[in-house]
Automatic annotation (TrEMBL):
It comes from Methanosarcina barkeri MS. This is Uncharacterized protein.
Length: 73
């Protein structure tokens, strides 16, 4: 049985998130590759995200310095 390698990696999705201005979806990520032969589809990005372990604590530690928490006034 042949297994095809993934068309999309976590680095591909991270690069999309860095470049995106206000739309952050797998469909929008796929639109970034319109002129590339055998470009990843939105399903490829979805599968990529499903392969990632859901470690929200590690994610928060990585990004919390960039988040401005709303202060009560």
């Amino acid at each position: 049985m042949d297994i095809n390698p993934p068309k999309c990696t976590d680095i591909d999705y991270i690069n999309f998130l860095i470049a995106a201005s206000n739309v952050f979806s797998c469909t929008e990520a796929a639109r970034c590759y319109p002129d590339i032969a055998n470009a990843p589809s939105h399903d490829a990005f979805t599968r990529c995200l499903q392969r990632q372990p859901p470690d929200t604590e590690a994610l928060w530690e990585e990004v919390k310095s960039y988040v401005k928490l709303k202060e009560d006034t």
